[in-house]
Amino acid sequence: MTKTELDQIKIGLDYILSHFDKPFPRKISTLQTENKQVEVYSKSEALEYFKESNFIDCRISAFGLLEINQERPNLIFVDLDDKTALHETLALFHKEIGAIPTVLFTGNGYAIIQPINIISLSNITLYKKRISDVSKKFLLFAERYLTNNKCDMGNHPSLRSCLIRIPYSYNKKCLLQGKSKEESKIFIHSEWNGKRVEIKNLPFIRYLEKLEVLQNRKQNRNFKNNGEIVYIEKLLQNKISNGRKRICALVLCPYLVNVKKLTLEECEKILVEYFDGAISKGIISYQLKTSYRKEILPYSLKNMKNNDSELFNIISDSGALNWLIG
Hints:
The chain is an alpha+beta fold and 326 residues long. The protein has 14 helices and 10 strands. The chain folds into 2 domains: 3-204, DNA primase, PRIM domain; 225-325, no CATH class. The protein has helices at residues 3-17, 43-52, 65-70, 86-97, 134-145, 172-176, 204-223, 228-237, 244-259, 264-275, 281-294, 301-307, 309-317, 322-325; strands at 26-29, 38-40, 59-61, 75-80, 102-105, 110-115, 125-126, 129-130, 163-165, 187-190. α9 packs across α11, α10 (264-275) packs across α11 (281-294) and α12 (301-307) packs across α13.
């Protein structure tokens, strides 16, 4: 490590931080951390990690803890492995949202960074139903739409997983390919013009509508003629005295959140009233958030009968399956 290398990394880090509303706290990763994300609270703390890694594989998260908590993806990040697609991609950025983004050359491709103006997506609804993982869907949509699907299609970005390489750091993959340190260095191909752009012209709502149609078709296939929706609706009409926590976690929370697409607040109100103190509000809230985050679907009757006869019998004894008998 030389003083020149350190000075360059400082410049590179400052440049990337200029794209963020609030630089810290956020996470970084390096070769030394084995690419595991570590939370840092200042530029000096980030630089210490970068120095310890000899400036190899130095990355910083595109989104800080505030954006993650608010579900506010205020930056579009594109991983473009197809070098021939750069001109088309930059033309699309300018045409669709009037953007002149930062372009980093990463050794084997390009990383494109464009700050945007956006509100929190945590309570976005469609047809009066809550949409799960909207921020993740937006990042995926924006990357593919603004590259005409020329981006890495195997990449599924999220607020937690988007990491930006620091200019003037080194790409380990390039070093392993036998390239020199200079050839393995991340550099700024072209600079952002400093303007956060509006994204109102992007057809994101149409994209969500298509996803919703596909999801409904999938759910209809899953639930067709096997009584799953009906049995849960009947269960909600018949309060139970046994297996409450398991039914809450495996059946009711996934159903209300991911099938009926109610808001977390609506789901919580229904279940607090349903369990009437038998399960605390805190536990209900935790199970609802887990079902939402992991996109869990409710336990099917078939799987329950085959793998969990005890739970199946509890539900059967509640009267929720009487309609199946006749």
